[in-house]
Design goal:
Elements: E1 2-5, E2 11-14, H1 17-31, H2 39-49, E3 51-52
Antiparallel strand pairs: 1-2, 1-3
Helix pairs in contact: 1-2
Length: about 55
């Protein structure tokens, strides 16, 4: 399981980078439309900032 933290404090979790991207797209569109992030920008952010969650 992987996660990424939004600056607003919301943590998104997903099985892989693709699921994290989908959740980030939904989150930005719903909660931060003023950010106007492209898919490429969100994919870059996931690739750079996502981290593995402990399975314990």
């Amino acid at each position: 399981m992987k996660a990424i933290d939004c600056p607003c404090g919301h943590r998104l979790e997903g099985a892989d980078d693709e699921e994290l991207f989908r959740k980030a797209r939904e989150h930005v569109d719903r909660d931060h439309p003023e950010m106007e992030r492209t898919d490429e920008q969100l994919r870059d952010r996931v690739a750079a900032d996502a981290y593995e969650l402990d399975s314990a």
